[in-house]
Amino acid sequence: MKLYEKTASELSEMLRRKKCSALEIYEDVSNRIKSVEDKVGAYITLSDETARKKAIEVDEALAKGEELHPLAGIPIGIKDNISTKGIRTSCASKMLENYIPPFNATVVEKINNADMVVTGKLNMDEFAMGSSTETSYMKKTRNPHDLDRVPGGSSGGSAAAVAAGEAILTLGSDTGGSIRQPAALCGVVGFKPTYGSVSRYGLIAFASSLDQIGPIGKSVKDIAMLQDIISGYDKMDATSKNMEYPKLTDNLTVNAKGLKIGILKEYFGEGVDDSVKESVYKVVKLFEENGAEIKEISIPSANFAMSTYYIISSAEASSNLARFDGVKYGYRAKEYDSLIDMYENTRSEGFGDEVKRRIMLGTFVLSSGFYDAYYKKAKIMQKRISSEFDNVFKDIDIIISPTVVSTAFKIGENIDNPVKMYYNDAFTVTANIGGLPAISLPCAKDEKNLPIGLQLIGKKFSEQTLLNAAYTYENLCGGFNVHSQIL
Amino acid sequence: MSIDIKKIAKLSMLKIEDEKIEKFEKDMEAIIDMVDSLPSIDGELNLDPDNVMALRKDFAVQNKYTRNELLQNAPEVQAGCLVVPKTVE
User: Fold this and answer.
1) Does A100 touch chain B (CB under 8 A)?
2) What domains sit in chain A, N to C, each tagged with a CATH number?
3) For chain A, N or C: smaller number of CB within 10 Å?
4) Domain ranges of chain B
């Protein structure tokens, strides 16, 4: 087995036993990038020089017997909407094509302090708006399990890089499913933490009340290890929750006995592929055989989550993206004859069609005469959905559902039909609406050999319970085989 | 519902090319139809009591970045200042 095929926890163990060096790990991943990146297209920017330097530093520190973080020396890729000082952060947009942040996001500071090796910046839908990574201005990313298909989105580069062996771990961001949906489509593990548990400082904002950074990887333990690094209170993020964050990795346990699992019946209805439903039901059965208690539950307003999500997220996006005006940073139109003309030309040339659509939708739902009919209604619905979740979590520990209605679709298949594309997020948006933690795990392959994902949702700040359930499944099913077999 | 794309684009500080207006209108109408499914329910908008945002202390942050660092991404700079078109007639 090549080094790039191993999990972060395996590599961490090998490093400490001196079975390999951090530089060897990085070089193996780097060679893998060289051999498959042309086909996959996961990266926008590679940071080879700084990565190599960091790997050498880690080796030197280990040789001196210094105590380093368990993930020191592990290669990690970062989604291109997370600010990296001195490394271009484009948001996959023409607007920020040449933008180099003068500061690090808090999560990047934490990763650097843990001595992880940053491989580069990963492709995404422009400003994280999309479910296929096709709205990227920079390049196409292909699904490593079938190169004619999309990797999902918006963190498509982050999920594809892990499945292709181009990174051991990656960071994504999830506003309506942007970590979990691509993780499901690429057959890897993707975790959206509770809103407020990971600092958003330095994450270029899409919808601030829903955005959350989270890890993508090959195993639940790897996810827990990375989450332990990035979580925690940060005074730079006003919505960061000031509380104790016990280490998840130290308390991972395998135990299905007595685990109360709710089957969210609204998410097993019409429109879900039979192969997806059957695969998730098989997992439910596996849990049941091992002592879990299964109960059918209902979130009656779940079917309104999509509308609620698109109103709130677009409203916030229209406000957040107002900052891109061509004055202080980013793209500026070449031709204009007044200040307003400069704003309009800059934004019209700098943003792609999907971003314009979301800005206009947001502007519309906030505009005079429509605010009460859309935005206010959506915020009240958000509260109702949250309280319905609170109610069901009185009787159960976690909820199980498919992550996405189907497996990966063909590149170009949905790009001209926004509403159809939006339905990719149907099962994931609820966790963002409620601020809940949720994880997507690979659970099967369909008849075309494409990965199927299942989703586990927990109550707020129940990361340990949720990851323990995920870890239990991983052990019961004999582990995940996330790597592409065709590259 | 019919949507006046030109008006919304203006409010959004965007210009939509003539040949794209029809497609934007059609897509936006389909999206509005989708989000129109929300029923009217009673309720009030209050801040989340579990997540009260603390206000930042009001003090100036000094010397965190140099002027050059902050201007390195600016589209046009002259003598250490951002250049913009004339804003007052």
Assistant:
1) yes
2) 3-259+400-476 (3.90.1300.10)
3) N
4) 5-35
